[in-house]
Amino acid sequence: MFLVTGATGKTGGQTVKHLLAKGAPVRAIVRNEEKAAPLKEQGVELVVGDIGDTDAVAKALDGVDGVLLTLPNGPNQLDWELGILKQAEAAGVKHLVYMSSTESNADNPRRIPQVHWKVVEAIQASSLNWTIMRPNFFMQGIFPFAGQVKANDAFSFPAGDGTASMCDVRDVGEVAAIILTGGETHYGKTYDLTGPDIVSFHDVASLLSKALGRDITYKPMPLQAFHDYLAKVLKSDWHVEGVVELMQEMSEEGGLDFTTDTMGELLGRPPVSLAQFVEEHKAMYGA
Q1: Which domains does the chain show, CATH number per domain?
Q2: Per-residue model confidence as pLDDT tens digits over 175-216
Q3: Which candidate, 191, 204, 174, places its Cα nearest to that of 261?
Q4: DSSP letter, residue 160
């Protein structure tokens, strides 16, 4: 039995999909049973409860062999992830797979990477068998541009001229399922997961232009304007500041501009390129 946290989210949802395709039994802890109904219809066992509720987590961990730990960024993330780690260790879970990020390291002072780093340190100091996944910027992060592109043939984002080796969350979810079902082959390993190409958001605009047959322009957004926008849509100041910090890192330092062959090696095929991704999803941008 495999427990997937964040099963109604992008990465967790893709992991569930690929675990089920392998015939693996899957359990998910969810807050909203109605939202998770499609998972139940696919055969996922649901435990309804808050991720910060130790009783619900204990129920979800009962009899579990492997866990994918991936939670949304937020002010409670560190406490919740460390709590799940402690309970997984006490429950005798054989394998914990943790979703970190490529920008997370001991020297990065930004709050979201620091949460990931502190959890990684705790995992590595635990008695659990573990695997750390460190994906780069998700290609699905360009989906919110669709409305802007359809209306104005342009989109704005606070990444400046920064670059990243974007990866498809579908590939990341498939890799997570491979790791969970692969067992000891992956114990004690850290995988940096990237797409095949280093691209900027100017490149995103060029690929959209080619796919759509019209000129699309990328307009870098000032960080302060992005901050003001996020403050209206996110509930937590911590979350707002954390996301702004990540965008500042991308725009100023190029911390995401490297590639590895790891994704393809684990998948046994080339990872999805941004060009493929844009072509596949061009209809949502008004093709």
Answers
A1: 2-134+168-192+259-267 (3.40.50.720)
A2: 999 999 998 999 999 999 999 999 999 999 999 999 999 999
A3: 191
A4: T
- 217 by DSSP, 3-state: which? strand
In percent, how much of the chain has pLDDT > 70?
99
The CA distance from 163 to 140, in Å, is 16
**Helix orientation angle between 10-21 and 169-182, rounded to the nearest 10 degrees:** 50
134 strand-pairing partners: 192
Q: In what order do the strands lie in the sheet with 66-69?
A: 45-48, 26-30, 2-4, 66-69, 95-99, 129-135, 189-193
CA atoms within 13 A on the CB side of 170: 10
Question: How many CB atoms lie under 10 A from the CB of residue 228?
Answer: 11
**Taking the complete model, does pTM exceed 0.90, yes or no?**
yes
Please give the single-letter amino acid code of residue 154. A
Pairing mode, strands 2-4 and 66-69: parallel
**What region does 6 belong to: left with phi over 0, alpha with psi -120 to 50, or beta?**
left
Kindly state the average pLDDT of the residues 63-69. 97
Strand partners, 99: 133
Cα 42 to Cα 72: distance, rounded to the nearest angstrom: 23
